[in-house]
């Protein structure tokens, strides 16, 4: 993150630490600590309610779908999970930024 900050790209950085535990937390540093299971659950909800749809033209779409299918409810993965985690981090930020626009699943 420091290298990106030094480039003065005029973009917002929102550090998220993928952590254990049951609940997301805000840290004094400004970062968020979010359990892996919470990231993946949020991603599932956004897909289920139709708030997240993958474009047919998305590069590596098939690989992402395979990774999503390989991630278990516990958050463990049978294979690679890089794309799933990257998408879940972006989805988490979208949820935080636009929470009023995304209905919660209860």
Quick rundown:
This protein has helices at residues 2-6, 36-48, 61-70, 82-97, and strands at residues 16-19, 25-26, 32-35. It is mainly α.
Q: Report the order of strands and helices.
A: HEEEHHH
Largest sheet descriptor: 3 strands, mixed
Could you report the average pLDDT, rounded to the nearest whole number?
83
Which regions are unreliable across 5 or more consecutive residues at pLDDT < 50? none
Strand content range: 5-15%
Instruction: Briefly note the structural class of the backbone.
Output: mainly alpha
Q: What's the N-to-C terminus distance?
A: 35 Å
Helical stretch count?
4
What is the C-alpha radius of gyration, as a whole number of Å? Answer: 15 Å
SSE diagram, text form:
Blueprint: H1 2-6, E1 16-19, E2 25-26, E3 32-35, H2 36-48, H3 61-70, H4 82-97
Parallel strand pairs: 1-3
Antiparallel strand pairs: 2-3
Helix pairs in contact: 2-4
Description:
- By secondary structure, the protein is mainly alpha-helical.
- It has helices spanning 2-6, 36-48, 61-70, 82-97; strands spanning 16-19, 25-26, 32-35.
- It has a three-stranded mixed β-sheet.
- Helix 2 crosses helix 4 (82-97).
- The relative contact order is 0.15.
What tags apply to this protein structure?
106 residues; 3-stranded mixed sheet
